């Protein structure tokens, strides 16, 4: 593949924009309201996309590719961990699913940020609900696959010899 670093990072940014486009389509056209963990996954997609876009705009050399690629991978790893947490919640037996808590908007208004993050990552009943599937797999599975793809492609950009 004769891709420049700029083109590689632009592909990641475009993929993230596409993923967010589908998330908004699912929310506003399919009526799937995002739970707090879904919102955190969106933050991971947006963060990876913005970092990749900034990298493309900077058109980094070898050292810059390592820095930007590493940051992109870190953002995608954070999003992947949230996706995996939600998948874990979704596989719990009904009697072990945490009770539904207050919405993210209320938590943000009434609690410090670190407490909000802690509560959201613990999960709630609404995050364990499977509202949509594709090929038998729930949305967080496909988001996890997306993050693995971003991590793999960014890793490839880091590992290749030519720019």
Helices and strands in order, then pairings?
Layout: H1 5-28, H2 36-58, H3 62-91, H4 104-110, H5 113-122, H6 125-128, E1 133-134, E2 137-138, H7 139-159
Can you tag this structure with a few keywords?
73% helix, 2 strands, mainly alpha, two-stranded antiparallel ribbon, 163 residues
Helix content: over 70%
The share of residues in extended strands comes to under 5%
DSSP helical segment count: 7
SSE succession = HHHHHHEEH
Sequence stretches where pLDDT stays below 50 over 5 or more residues: none
Please give the radius of gyration in angstroms: 17 Å
Tell me the strand order in the biggest sheet: 1-2
What does the largest sheet look like? 2 strands, antiparallel
Distance between the termini: 11 Å
Mean pLDDT: 85
The tally of beta strands, per DSSP, is: 2
* Global geometry: elongated
SSE-based structural type: mainly alpha
